[in-house]
Amino acid sequence: MTTVNLHLQQVKEQTAESMEEMWVNMGPQHPSTHGVLRLLIKLDGEVVRECIPYMGYMHRCHEKIGENRAYVQIIPYTDRLDYLASMYNNWAYCLACERLMGIQIPERAEYLRVLIGELQRIASHLIWLGTFGLDLGNFTLFMWCFREREMILDLFEAVSGQRLNYSFMRIGGLALDVPEGWLGDVKAFLQWFKPRLPEYDRLSTDNIIWQKRIQGVGILTPEDAVSYACSGPVLRGSGIRWDLRKNDPYGIYDRFEFDIPVGTSGDVWDRFWVRRQEMDQSVRIVEQALTEIPPGPVLAPVAKKLRAPVGDIYSRVESPRGELGDYIVADGSEKPYRYKVRAPTFVNLSALPVMLPGYLVADAVAVLGSVDIVLCEVDR
Amino acid sequence: MPQIREELVARFYALFEGWGIPWIVPRLVVMLVVVSIIILFISVSAMFLIWWERKISAHIQARFGPMRVGGWHGWAQSIADGVKLLLKEDIIPTQADRPVFILAPMVVFAAALAAYVVIPFGPGLIVEDLNIGILYFIAISSLTVLGIIMAGWGSNNKYAALGALRSAAQAVSYEVPLVVSLIGPVLLVGSLSTTKIVEAQRYLWFIVLQPLAFLTYFTCAVAETNRLPFDIPEAESELVAGFHVEYSGMRFAIFFLAEYANMFTVCAIATTVFLGGWRGPLLPPWLWFLLKTYFLLFVMIWLRWTLARVRVDQLMNVAWKILLPLAFANLGITGLLVWVFS
Predict the structure, then answer these.
(1) Owning domain of residue A302
(2) Which residue of A21, A126, A140 is the best one to mutate when testing the B interface, meaning the one whose CB has the most B CBs within 10 A?
(3) What is the complex's ipTM, to 2 decimals?
(4) Of B98, B186, B105, B93, whose CA–CA distance to B138 is shortest?
(5) How many domains does chain A have?
């Protein structure tokens, strides 16, 4: 008997005991689970008593596939992890390989990675803000956020030819240099984007209904956040100043000036506000990168056939959703012996059962939205 | 106009009596004609409203909305959608309570239909000028809830049941301030007849005398029609679609139609009671009436596409802790002033 069936049996026994409480299946086909996530929720009227997330509907053996591919061949697979921040998955994987093989990448590539990475963070947070708006019933925010995200996708399409799964980074740098005039396009985008942020605020932050809906809901205490190993905006929303760009700098993040927004009480509002402010900070970083970016090559001279020396490496980056880590064990061949991805959303999602009990169904949707999950990354 | 109409109807009756046909037949024919006109009006106005809402929402969201069907700005989109829904397979879930499931949309639509009886579109342009018009509207508009609960119960689905329960709670809460806020203007006029209320606003619209009542009424009206920010019973992101989650095809279309018909009704009553009904210079009365009503409808649509949804407990708080005291305060002050000045 599978665990799910076993659990369902328990559920049936429990429901026989008390008729006031009802088990409801939220998902896998539900508009607010952001993909194929199934939440088994025990409801007492409208109040959530218990929540059990079931994951794995999207399991694709990502890590096992990785063991059967050459190092370079894994890059396109990493695109499919967190498809809303593909650049970051590329970056995390390439960074791990570079550290493993001791490759130094050119200056221009470092700058472009930061620039593209922060644009990707903005795009990812935009999609999050939009879908969070949908969760709360604000449809207009969704369309507005998508409008600006579309512009970032246009920029990425110009450099990589793709709109979602870029496969743009390589071990040793970038696949290509950016086209001529592209940096000017980024500047123009920022010109357009900066006044848009207060516009979003008018629909969301400043709106009393929006505030009342998410303040004091789904509280995750700092202790819980740490013990569940949460990362990214979920951790920072709980008031812990932990950002790998500052705490464990990779790339050239130590050269840029930016703040790490943190929350105070760890409720949905704090997680929302942290992400909202991170967009401002990303804009700051992109602006700095634009002024300092040097000319030069974008790909270090690396061998066609890459072999890593025997050893292992755990390397992590701060993706829009938290600590995205790649663990690679190399046995000296051209394929990794073991390849493991630490998916931030998987870890953050496991803290959901702590956040939900005691709140209403409507809050369950808001809390789930505030965790910002991407099921492709959760299930891998 | 009313004289002409009554004369026509009387002649019609006399004609049939002359032919020796039982008296019930011409009356039934007249009734049928009136009902057909109402249904036609509801359908056309609901279709227009759906298209209009899609256009407004699209422009709020930096889109175009329907642009293809029919040529000019997709004007025929609603008709195409209606035809599509009518041609769909009629699905009734096997676990559903069949008679209740089938009856539910009819009850909802019948309630929406019946409310049109007391809407004065112009002097004499009213189906039946009941002397208890406002009371009738209040009574009929709460019937909709019955249909919604039937739909939720009959679907035999947890989400639908939750939606129906929420709807019952919401309707009970919002009926009260709605009724109380309508009593203020009624006190000023001294009549429940909708025509009399419009006639009493010859010099001054009641929105000037009763701004508080208008605000509470309009807020409750938005809640009554299950529109955002009060669309708790069909909250898409939580309950998928709430009470009509199991409905498809024609039955769904009827729910949809009824929702828009109800929107029109509550806005028409708001126009009648607070915005001077059909009164206005230059343009014909019925046009004035429609203009005012559609302005209120525009406000409703505007609210829907800019606000987030409130939570179910907040909804109750707003109704009982804010709207009801406000409505009662308005009623008390109005009563006192009427008593002092009369």
Answers:
(1) 64-379
(2) A140
(3) 0.74
(4) B186
(5) 2
Give the per-residue pLDDT at A57: 83
Q: What is the number of helices (H) and of strands (E) in chain B?
A: 15, 0
Task: Collapse the DSSP code of A117 into the 3-class scheme (helix H, G, I; strand E, B; otherwise coil) and give the result.
Answer: helix
Based on the fold, state whether residues B276 and B248 are members of the same structural domain. yes
N residues, chain A: 380
User: Which residues have C-beta within 8 Å of that of residue A104, sequence separation ≥ 6?
Assistant: A98, A300
For B70, which DSSP code? T
* Shortest alpha-carbon distance between residue B314 and chain A (Å): 8
Task: Check CB contact under 8 Å for B311 and A360.
Answer: yes
Residue B23 shares a structural domain with residue B156:
no
**pLDDT score recorded for residue A37:** 83
The 10s digit of each residue's pLDDT in B219-263 is 888 888 877 777 766 666 566 667 777 888 888 888 888 888 888
CA distance A313 to A340: 10
pTM of the predicted model as reported, rounded to 2 decimal places: 0.81
* CATH classification of the domain holding A190: 1.10.645.10
Verify that B326 and B215 share a domain, yes or no.
yes
Average the pLDDT over A92-115 and give the result.
89
Give the domain extent around B80: 1-87
> How far apart are the CA of B226 and the nearest CA of chain A, in angstroms?
13
Averaged pLDDT for residues B80-96: 84
Give the pLDDT confidence of B177-224 residue by residue, as tens digits: 888 888 888 888 888 888 888 888 888 888 888 888 888 898 888 888
pLDDT-derived band of residue A122, with 50, 70 and 90 as boundaries? very high
Contacts 24+ apart (CB under 8 A), A166-169: A166/A79, A166/A86, A166/A87, A166/A90, A167/A75, A167/A76, A167/A79, A167/A86, A167/A90, A168/A87, A168/A90, A168/A116, A169/A75, A169/A87, A169/A90, A169/A91, A169/A94, A169/A113
B240 touches chain A (CB under 8 A): yes
Same domain membership, residue B97 and residue B62: no
